[in-house]
Amino acid sequence: MKISNRLIRRNSRKGVLSYLYFILPALIIVGVVLVFPIIYSVVLSFFNWAQVDDGRRAFIGFQNYFDLFKDRQFWNSLSLQLGFILIAIPIQLVIGFFVAILFNREFPAAGLLRTLLLLPVFTLPVLSGLTWRLMLQPGYGVISYLLEIVGFDASRGILSDSGLAYIAVIVQDIWRMWPFMFMILYAGLKSLPADIMEAAELDGANFFKKTFLITIPMLKQTITTAILLRTIDALRIFSEVFVMTNGGPGNATMLYSLYIHKQAFEFGKLGYASSMAVILIIVSLLFAFGLVRKNMDIDTL
Q1: Which end of the chain has fewer CB atoms within 10 angstroms, the N or the C?
Q2: pTM of the model
């Protein structure tokens, strides 16, 4: 009996070790790519760490965070980032939702059209930003030309105006990322039971009643997941805004990620930039946990 128990324990240990062998490469990759940079950024945020070692690198505790909260441009970039999220993502959600409803039926060339709709989301952010920058140029930009046809004066350049440049950055992101919302919501619509919709139609429910009383409540978890993924992605937006405006004119489009880049690679303040990155991680976690706790269980995510 004792021998059999020993054999069982030995086999169970071998089974655990075999599982560890399979997941160890993934753990190493996650540790190197994700965990180590976070820990390194947290440690670096407590130092006065210049990009070039001039002999003044030193441990300063929470001084970077104290300076950060007194920095007006920090609060400006954070407000621009949050405004970007609060404007762009709801519009993307609405467009993606109603286009998903439109395509939630079979009609000629539906598959081809669905594929074409997804092209913007697969466009490289740098290429998207550069394309929109060219289209918004005065004189030869196609969007500027169309705006002038309808009576809007775009001769000074849309990206040269602080208010219009911020709007242009948001519109570019809406164009590129609403198909992402469409993909998730379309998959969610396809998973809904058809008999519920048929029963609602038999009861005389019109389009709006079916949409707002049946479809949206049943898609609540899918919508939450889409918003969560899109919010985390929008918090780190950088390359398309960098090539469109580089944060200008002035600081009108200096989003949070651009300000981190500016502090790190233009001013050489790696410790200060790391403290901003830590704040960004905290904000992302607050968004994630807030959405999860309010709308769905963690197990269903």
Answers
A1: N
A2: 0.86
